[in-house]
């Protein structure tokens, strides 16, 4: 499967598993899981041609951001994080490393340094373990700005962190006092 096809499938799956399952009348359970068969069947609608199990499997396994995960027997699938719909990912609080990174666009600098980092329409603020990943995230929004987050201090102050299946650190809010750039 070519990269353009993989990207098209990934964007569609992101849309229905993270934001709008209702556009194909997809049923997600409280943890965001759905039947692979149902997803494949319902993806073949309107002008969207759908995809095969083999294409879905390849997209999940080769996705550089590891956005999606199958259950053990590959009969169910869900997004790892990034939901704007109410999903309980059943993540357990974990102690983060001393520092994590947040990639954004340089245009957001003043607002973030004043107000902090808000989750906005997502369930969590996303933080990266390395500058390279944060830079890639920031580049999607404009000229990248990499912020260093003092996560050990946050954790010591009672703020909870979670680690998603694809190693993205999640928290509810990052106060400006914990940010340096």
TrEMBL record:
GO terms, biological process: tRNA splicing, via endonucleolytic cleavage and ligation
Q: Could you tell me which Pfam families the record lists for this protein? A: PTS_2-RNA (PF01885)
The question of whether Repressor is a record keyword is answered with no
Tell me what gene encodes this: kptA
Per its UniProt entry, which superkingdom is the organism in?
Bacteria
Output the Gene Ontology terms for molecular function: NAD+ poly-ADP-ribosyltransferase activity; tRNA 2'-phosphotransferase activity
Protein EC: 2.7.1.-
Q: What's the name of the protein?
A: Probable RNA 2'-phosphotransferase
Q: Which family, according to the similarity comment?
A: Belongs to the KptA/TPT1 family.
Its function, per the record, reads: Removes the 2'-phosphate from RNA via an intermediate in which the phosphate is ADP-ribosylated by NAD followed by a presumed transesterification to release the RNA and generate ADP-ribose 1''-2''-cyclic phosphate (APPR>P). May function as an ADP-ribosylase.
InterPro entries for the chain: Ptrans_KptA/Tpt1 (IPR002745), RNA_2'-PTrans_C (IPR042081), RNA_2'-PTrans_KptA (IPR022928), RNA_2'-PTrans_N (IPR042080)
UniProt keywords (A-Z) are:
NAD, Transferase
């Amino acid at each position: 499967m070519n990269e353009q096809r993989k990207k098209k499938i990934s964007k569609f799956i992101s849309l229905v598993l993270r934001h709008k399952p209702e556009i194909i009348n997809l049923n997600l359970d409280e943890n965001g899981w759905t039947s692979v068969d149902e997803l494949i069947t319902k993806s073949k609608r309107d002008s969207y041609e759908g995809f095969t199990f083999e294409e879905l499997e390849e997209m999940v396994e080769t996705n550089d951001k590891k956005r999606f995960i199958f259950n053990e027997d590959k009969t169910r699938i869900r997004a790892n994080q990034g939901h704007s719909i109410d999903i309980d990912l059943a993540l357990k609080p974990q102690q983060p490393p001393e520092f994590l990174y947040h990639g954004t666009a340089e245009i957001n600098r003043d607002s973030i340094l004043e107000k902090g980092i808000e989750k906005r329409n997502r369930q969590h603020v996303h933080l990266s373990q390395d500058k390279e990943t944060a830079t890639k995230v920031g580049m999607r929004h404009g000229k990248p700005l990499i912020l260093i987050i003092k996560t050990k201090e946050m954790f010591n102050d009672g703020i909870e962190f979670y680690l998603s299946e694809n190693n993205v650190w999640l928290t509810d809010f990052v106060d400006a006092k914990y940010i340096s750039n």
